[in-house]
User: Fold these one by one.
Assistant:
Number 1:
Amino acid sequence: MHERGRRNYYPVFSFKWAPRYSAERRAKETRTWIEVFSKLASNANDFISACDYDLEGSLIGYCLLKYACDNKHGTAKRMKFSTLTKTELEKAYEKPLPNLDFALIEAGRTRHEVDWLYGVNLSRALTLAAKRWSGRYATLSTGRVQGPTLKFLVGREKEIRSYVPTPYWTIGAEVEIKGSAYEVEYEAKTFEKRVGADTVVEACRAKTGEIETIQVRKLRQKPPVPFDLGKLQTEAYSFFGYTPRRTSNIAQRLYLEALISYPRTSSQKLPPIINYAAILKALSKEASYKKLASELLRKGELKPVEGKKDDPAHPAIYPTGNLPEKELSQQEKRIWDLIVRRFMAVFGEPAIRQSMKVCIGVSGHRFYLRGRRILKEGWTRFYKPYIRAAEALLPTVREGEKVQMKRVVREDKFIKPPPRYNPSSLLQKMEEEGIGTKATRADIIETLYGRGYVAEERIAVTDLGFDIADILSKHCPTVTSVKFTRELEEKMERILTNSEERENVLVEAVNQLKPVLEELKQKEQNIGQVLSTAIKRARIQERIIGNCPSCKTGKLMILYSRKTRKRFIGCTNYFKDLCTTSFPLPQRGTVKPAQKNCRACEWPLLFVRLKGKRPWMLCFNPNCPLKEERRKRDEMQSLREES
Amino acid sequence: MKCKVCEKKAENEYCELHEKAHRNIVKKYDVWKKASDISWKQYLSELVNNPYTGVWAREVAEHLMKSEEK
């Protein structure tokens, strides 16, 4: 920290650790907590840190012991546990580690300090540049991981926005076998020239083909590996559409309820010490898992399939076997169920699938008919309904059999641009590139949304995001360099194994930052101008609701009357004397474009939020059929009440 | 000099971003011509109407069409 209220300067390289209440106006309640700890500590003889066994947990325990418990960090012991079940906590309490985990503490401390140095200095440089130019305050931020993450997104966005599609052609075909139609693939997947596809269509249309060969193959599909946090987040996004942060928060709640093990783990391994059989036995008390868990228990030896990734502090995520004592929310139920079924699936037998490829010859061309079916369900039985592959059953056919080509057409296609990242694929990219940690990645993605640098679920970079990335890559390329960020991460990881020292990492971080900040300061005016323009544009963009339904060329926007200061919706063509369309708006609460259209009239919807009330969607079309319907319904209701 | 599409600062005809899109358009024309024997004008019109064309590439294609009409 440094002094409260003096945040309008940079660089800041000197700092000290201090209670939050002395640095943040909104953190007054921390004072009471710390005082309670100090009071309790004054009468205590033994000290044991029982915080979560991770970087953050170890550091919190250390800070409490050092600052609130009168330097007891030197003599305190450490409980090590991965679940909050009574048995494990009792065991960890009976046999604590003799000392605090100082390597973990040192690594956690360094990470906080390095992130603080980068975040505070760079964010201030951007915010102050914009404020000094425009006189208006807007929070802008960047950091050691935020910068490179935004850079990935900007790189992808540029590719998409300047993309020119390439045409290609395919053959769409169907054959008729025993009265049913089956889709077949042409031997060449694509044609680069249209004429090539036309020739095939010409040669095969309405012809009779002959089955030349039938290939049958059996495939063994191994069970999936246990969940680490990244894999859980990916699967939850794919099946429920939850963002990584949402999944991480739900998993944390399940951990605190002692229903699952510690979720912020990179491990894909389940050591026997967790007692697989005891967990399955406990799970079998739940009706929906009874049959499956009992089946696994009858197997005799339980051996999980494991992934490559490991984490020295915690095993992969697994259900503790405890059943919910209170009703779980829908989201919690879903994540818990996913974790339980995954845990059971890793002990399952491989699934055996049969694939069949029927080769059909037509006028010298070949078409393939493909089918697949499950011979043995294996682990997939335990993981249902989270299974993707569907069966495609084929009729009984034999070589030499004649089949009729029912449809042969040319299909015009284009190579699509690279897909936009979504929160889940971005998280995976960050993981692959080795930037951020499992505990921070999801929050960084949310910050990018919060600052207005990106928007929408299929992540699109906003103009403000482009300008921030542009400024950073022009004036401080090291800050957005993935290589530099990864190297720094590796150095911080080495502190964990005592092969790197905190001081060296901090000195290097400061040495990297100094010239960057000097340059930002020198060019503060230019940067401020660019940022202020981008912020202004972003604020206008936020108020645009959609196309004007009257003049079709203008945009509808939330505007404020100069006379009354009341807000309303108006068309941008009003200022050109082309359109006078306007609609009233509620004057209380916040109103934002909902980025959705009304299901009845297709007009853009607004999202209204009023303090103390549930937010709602508003269709401002006065003639919306839904409004008419509602009016009639209300009338009927009052008539019924009267009668 | 200002970009002919977005009026941002530009060294030549287009700003840095529209220049990249322009280069892509010119480069891809060969592929389109070989694939379906298409004229430059038809090609630009295809790009303007294609849902996969990027925003900047579409803006450049529209600009090129308009300037050729003139």
Number 2:
Amino acid sequence: MEAKRKPRILIGSIGLDGHELGALIVSRALRDAGMEVVYAGLNLTAEDVVQTAIQEDVDMIGISSMSGIHVEALSDLIKLLKERGGERVPVIAGGIIPPEDMPALKDLGVKGIFPSGSTTSSIVEFVERELSGKSSPGTP
Amino acid sequence: MIAGKDSSNREEDRFITKSGIPLKSVYTLEDIEQIPYESEIGRPGQFPYTRGPYANMYRSVPWMKRQPMGFGSSELTAERWSALHKKGGQAGYTGDPAITLLFDMPTNYGYDSDNPKSKYQVGTVGLPVDHVEDMIQLMKGFPMDRGFSNMVIHGSPPIVLAMYIAAAEELGYAAKALKGSGKNDPFQSFLAERIQLLPIEAELKLCMDVLEHCTEHMPQWNPISLSGFSYQPAGLNSIKALGLTLATAIGYIEAGLGRGLVPDQFAPRMSFFLSGGVDFLEEVAKFRAARRLWAKIMKERFRAENPRSMLFRVYCLTLTTDYTAQQPLVNLVRGTIQGLAAVLGGVQALGIPCYDEALGIPTEEAQTLSIRTQQVIAEESGVINTVDPLGGSYCIEWLTSKIEDEVNQFIEKIEGMGHDGTVLSGLIAGTNSGAILTEIDDGALTRQRDVETGKTTMIGLNKYREEETVFPHVFRFDRKYVDKKIQDLKEFKKKRDISLRNRALDELRKVTESNENVMPALIRCAKARVTLEEAMNVFRDFYGKKSDLGKGA
């Protein structure tokens, strides 16, 4: 019998932005928790993310946004995912996201939102729950 | 959420500075009597300048009050600048206008606003500059010969500076009258901003072109502003950030020597840009140590004779990673402590990030509060009535010397990474191998872990949490300005004289290929209405792209 595959998450940042820290920190925490991280890095387009996600057959996509572009970028990403048949891949977002933007992101279908001050442990817990089938939509 | 919990009860672990220096219960004369007073402490305005670069400091000349800013478009940025200047901010030493400009990501990455890669990012975290007319529009209300402009540009400093110079000349100012400073710090762009457009050797060459050009043609301009301020948010503690900043300064001087420049010619115009954290004692001591370190580096390592080469002149932007998104008004308190430490540390210019920093770019109201914080320190607190008032404190003098030692060790470590005993080769090796980046990233991971375990207290976040009741208005500007920018750019490209633009680009290509100083050609390009991206592509094509972790930018 095939061993159960470790959860695989793509972590990346859309648009030109050198602020990498959040993505690095979350990637490390997810790896330490035993998950596989496909670190797609910085300066990605929505197209890059979707292509990599499909190629690598990821279970979840995590997008870091540090320059206020979260609504636009995630809207493009989720639309493109749908077009390519990837709508079942849950998307989470983190970074500089003010409370007033969270409803818009939830409406887009972002499953988890992790603004400034979120702990890596809460992110890890969320991802584990979400991918074990007991999903917990929305902001933890 | 874990409430703040001491991870140990040992005194050495509890009473430590943010950079990890344990402090004793009390310091006495015994702790500092080994420090030779005249040669190490002395008086302000005298080598080694521990107590201040100038004898009278703020009694004669206040620090510049410069809040970094930039967003949307030249018009919007100029408007906000003007509003803040009217409130007493954005002012230089004599009340003359001063500005610290931040540019948007496409500009920092060398792309025009209409490039598909620039999607989402035009004008979001800084000002978009595509060509000289953007600069003219920005600066036309600003007295470029009296005012002071600090441009924080990553990735494309020579091109943006050339546009600034060209804009000044078209507005009727001589280049030699221009006052200001430009971040021109390729190591920092690589290591802190993660913006790597060209191989480091190419970026160094361009950095030196700017240095050489300004040394000869722009005597009032600081061509290299060592921008160590973002090493701290990136992960280094205050002491290591200072160490890396001074190491890169040494590296650039070594590179200048390699160009045949004499340190006394250009070192007086090297300036610094550092973070100011909330650990009050450490920050005061850090700035004092920085001055002493720099004076000794210039005198002993580079045999400088011009006293002005030995002055560590610094713009402090207080530290955003000390701030929280939770209970954001508390950031006003943090900003005050940070600002006060910087002033007691003797900085030449100060900016205090706004309390809404964790939510987005600041509102005018938040910027105003930051300016008022500076004004209260300057005009109500009385700390400016005498120079270096904490000088002579047993703790502060001990800590100043301690930080000096730690920084020297850090510089030696960088030196050791190289192959020829120069700090420059150590920096290049450490950058190319990823060793320095790893140290920075490890620092960030440690910092995050310390916050999550409560080892580092952050009130509102991991201690004294409560349900949020204050929701600052998040600043947004009308996206129509961005649409207009992109539209204007399209028309601009059509309207300009294409043969003039082509000739200018050909010239730029020629001087790049023959390894000459590119600045005169870049200035001519700016005047010929070459765009930022078009100029940058000449460098990209010639030097090759440097790809970063994600994707080549």
